[in-house]
């Protein structure tokens, strides 16, 4: 995993089969914040996309690639200060060669990301 | 040919600088480049650039284009931009370390601070990823 225990840490998870909720802590000391942005910690949206991907890999126990993103909306600016802990809620639907993934990153206050797209089992793409 | 240090055009810094050069600007179209290095933030255990790295490269390419326009209008520091939406992203293949990406950004019209852009990443003649994106550019930053 590229970002687990570096950018985020899973503290709890529940659900099984095709649905799960991962409770994660956003790690404020992650080196990505040196550059995004200097003096102004903001979660890179793409790191949250990678986090969703890694949670889907945990749920499905498959190594996956993002083949397509139908739509991913970043609906609020996230940071370890604004939202130190968030829920990553995932629903997957098996398709040929992978999964259609619907996911959201939320806390009790806000929704930070809404995501829908297809992830395919690694080794299909070079 | 644009001859401007990329750090003057985008606010991101190491370890998440995902564009090397703004090569050309022609109207609403810009061309950027990135050579994938082994210390890139999104390199996986197989030496491939993960897909979110491709998305960030497109976003920062658009940011460099917006920074170029802001500088041309008299800005002193590059504006901060945020991704608002990624739509119709496709990854056809991932690049390896040492691959040189060449990316074309087409900037749409800005409405209420939101600009729709399209980005297409090529490796040689091959399109390896493309997407639409909405970006928010902060004013007066």
UniProtKB/TrEMBL annotation, chain A:
<dbReference type="InterPro" id="IPR029069">
    <property type="entry name" value="HotDog_dom_sf"/>
</dbReference>
<dbReference type="GO" id="GO:0019171">
    <property type="term" value="F:(3R)-hydroxyacyl-[acyl-carrier-protein] dehydratase activity"/>
</dbReference>
<feature type="domain" description="ApeI dehydratase-like">
    <location>
        <begin position="19"/>
        <end position="92"/>
    </location>
</feature>
<keyword id="KW-0456">Lyase</keyword>
<protein>
    <submittedName>
        <fullName>3-hydroxyacyl-[acyl-carrier-protein] dehydratase</fullName>
        <ecNumber>4.2.1.59</ecNumber>
    </submittedName>
</protein>
<dbReference type="InterPro" id="IPR054545">
    <property type="entry name" value="ApeI-like"/>
</dbReference>
<dbReference type="Pfam" id="PF22818">
    <property type="entry name" value="ApeI-like"/>
</dbReference>
TrEMBL record, chain B:
<protein>
    <submittedName>
        <fullName>Hotdog family 3-hydroxylacyl-ACP dehydratase</fullName>
    </submittedName>
</protein>
<dbReference type="Pfam" id="PF22817">
    <property type="entry name" value="ApeP-like"/>
</dbReference>
<dbReference type="InterPro" id="IPR016776">
    <property type="entry name" value="ApeP-like_dehydratase"/>
</dbReference>
<dbReference type="InterPro" id="IPR029069">
    <property type="entry name" value="HotDog_dom_sf"/>
</dbReference>
């Amino acid at each position: 995993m590229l970002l687990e225990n570096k950018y985020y840490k899973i503290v709890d998870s529940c659900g099984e089969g095709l649905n799960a909720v991962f409770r994660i802590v956003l790690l404020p000391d992650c080196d990505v914040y040196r550059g995004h942005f200097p003096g102004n910690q903001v979660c890179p949206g793409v790191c949250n996309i990678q986090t969703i991907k890694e949670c889907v890999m945990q749920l499905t126990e498959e190594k996956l690639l993002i083949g397509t993103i139908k739509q991913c909306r970043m609906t609020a600016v996230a940071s370890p200060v604004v939202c130190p802990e968030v829920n990553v809620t995932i629903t997957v639907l098996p398709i040929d060669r992978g999964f259609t993934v619907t996911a959201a990153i939320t806390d009790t206050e806000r929704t930070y990301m809404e995501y829908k797209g297809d992830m395919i089992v690694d080794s299909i793409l070079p | 040919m644009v001859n401007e240090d990329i750090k003057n055009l985008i606010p991101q810094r190491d370890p998440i600088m995902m564009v090397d050069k703004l090569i050309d600007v022609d109207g609403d179209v810009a061309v950027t480049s990135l050579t994938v290095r082994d210390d890139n933030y999104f390199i996986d255990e197989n030496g491939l650039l993960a897909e979110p790295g491709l998305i960030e490269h497109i976003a920062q390419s658009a940011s460099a284009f917006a920074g170029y326009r802001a500088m041309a209008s008299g800005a002193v520091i590059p504006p901060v931009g945020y991704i608002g939406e990624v739509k119709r992203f496709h990854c056809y293949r991932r690049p390896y370390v040492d691959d040189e990406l060449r990316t074309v950004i087409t900037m749409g019209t800005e409405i209420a601070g939101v600009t729709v852009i399209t980005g297409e990443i090529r490796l040689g003649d091959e399109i390896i990823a493309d997407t639409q994106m909405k970006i928010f550019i902060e004013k007066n930053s």
